[in-house]
Amino acid sequence: MKKGFKTLLAEANAMIDVISPGEARTLLGDADTVFVDVREAQERARGHIPGSIHAPRGFLEFIADPEGPMHDPAFGSGKRLVVYCASGGRSTLAARTLKEMGFERVSNLAGGIQAWAQAGGELES
Q1: Where do the domains of the chain lie, and which CATH numbers do they carry?
Q2: Which residues contact 10 (CB under 8 A, 6 or more apart)?
Q3: pTM of the model
Q4: Are 75 and 95 in contact (CB under 8 A)?
Q5: Would you call 30 helix, strand, or coil by DSSP?
Q6: Which of 81, 90, 79 is nearest to 113 (CA)?
């Protein structure tokens, strides 16, 4: 194996924007921001950031690409995308993927939804 997950995460973190839960909370309800939950459906069912869209990591490219069979128009809106998962690992890789796909306004929520909840962030189910 040439690269393990730690190397991949380090490389991704070097090229993406990371925001704190506090910064992310100020963006909740902002008409120019879309929160993107890349967790699996059963994780999302336990609670998610209000108004977020669901784009599981395994389908992200198919959902983000306008030519993809599962495309969500939120990805073509030009809005800022704040990507999150449970603790930040998957969303780090997802944010990198979105950057590589040409999305310029992408941020990763540091610590994921766990950090969001610990910082008092609102959740809905």
Answers
A1: 5-118 (3.40.250.10)
A2: none
A3: 0.95
A4: no
A5: coil
A6: 90
Residue 55 backbone phi and psi in degrees, to 5:
-140, 80
Which pLDDT tens digit goes with each residue over 80-118? Answer: 999 999 999 999 999 999 999 999 999 999 999 999 999
Q: Which residues pair with 36 in a beta bridge?
A: 53, 83
Q: Are 63 and 72 in contact (CB under 8 A)?
A: yes
Strand order in the sheet with 106-109: 17-19, 106-109, 80-84, 33-37, 53-54
Cα angle: 88, vertex 32, 17; to 5 degrees: 35
SS3 15: helix
Strands annotated E in the chain:
17-19, 33-37, 53-54, 80-84, 106-109
